[in-house]
Amino acid sequence: MSNEEGMTMNFYKNDVNTVTEKTWAEYAKTKDITLRNRILTEYLYIVTCNIKKMSSICNKREDIEDMTNQGVLELINCIDRYDYTREVQFDTFASIRVRGSIIDYIRKRDWVPRDVRKRIKEVNDTAMKMHNELGRTPLDKELRMRLNLSEEELNKIRCDEVSTNLLAFDDLIQENNTCLANAKSATSFTHPEDKVLKDEFKEVLAECIDKLDDRERTVISLYYYEELKLKEIAFVMDLTPSRISQIHSKALEKMKNSISEYMKL
Q1: 111, CA 20 to 30 Å: which among 23, 103, 163, 243?
Q2: What residues make up the domain containing 12?
Q3: 188 vs 118: CA distance, rounded Å
Q4: What's the number of domains the chain is made of?
Q5: How is 39-93 classified by DSSP, letter by letter?
C-alpha cells in the first residue's frame, strides 16, 4: 500500500471546510487538476467512513486497498459531476454514490463463496431442526456436537453470516438511496417531495427497529451505534458470540423484509 492510500483510509472530517462555493465555481470553470486534488483531500473522509463500515465484510489488506481505490475513483467522479448551483451539500451528494460504488464492487467480486453460503444454511437448518426437537434454542455445544464442529469453526460460520446479511442489508438501503438520488438529479435537489421521501424512509427504518424484540434492538444498538464487536456484545449481554451473531442476523433479516415491503409500495 502506498503512503497516499494509507492516508486515504485515515482521513477525517475537518472542523472547518475550506472548500467554498467560490472554490466550486473556479473548478467548474477551469477543471484544474491541482484544485481538484485539493477538493479531493478535503472530502477523503467520505471514503474513510465507508471503508470502516465495510470492514466487517472483508478485512484483508489487499481487499481494503481495492475498496479504497474504488471509493476514491468514485469520489473523483462525484467532484467532476457536482453542480454547486443546486443547493445540496457535496458530502450528501457524494456519500450515497461512494458507498454504492463500494457495495457494487464487493458484489461483483462475490466475497461470499458458495461453500460459505452452504455452511451457513446447514447450521441454520440444523439449529431449526434441533429447536423443534428440543422445544428450545439449542446450545452452541449441542449444535457443535450435532454438526461435528469446533467452537472456532461455528463462530467463523456465524461471523460469515453476519457479513452476508450486512452486505444484503446495505445493498437494500443503497437501492433506496439511489432511487431518491436519481429522482433529485432528474428534477431539482430542492424539490419538496424529495425531503418528504427521505423523511418517510427514516421513519420506516425507525419503525423497523421498533418491531424488533428487546435483545435484537440491543444488539443492533451496540453493533451500529456503540460500534462494539460481536465478542464485546457477547460479554455485555452474557451470551456466546455465536448467539449474538444469530440475534444480529435475525434482526437484519426482519429489517430487510420490512424495508423490502415498503419499497414495493
Answers
A1: 243
A2: 1-111
A3: 46
A4: 1
A5: HHHHHTHHHHHHHHHTTTT---HHHHHHHHHHHHHHHHHHHHH--GGG---HHHH
Residue 1 in any domain: the answer is yes
Asked if the structure places residue 85 within a domain, the reply is yes
Residue pLDDT, tens place only, 59-100: 567 778 888 899 999 999 999 999 888 877 898 888 888 888
Interval 109-122 mean pLDDT: 77
- Is residue 213 included in any domain, yes or no? no
Is residue 227 included in any domain, yes or no? no
Question: Longest C-alpha distance within the chain, in Å?
Answer: 71
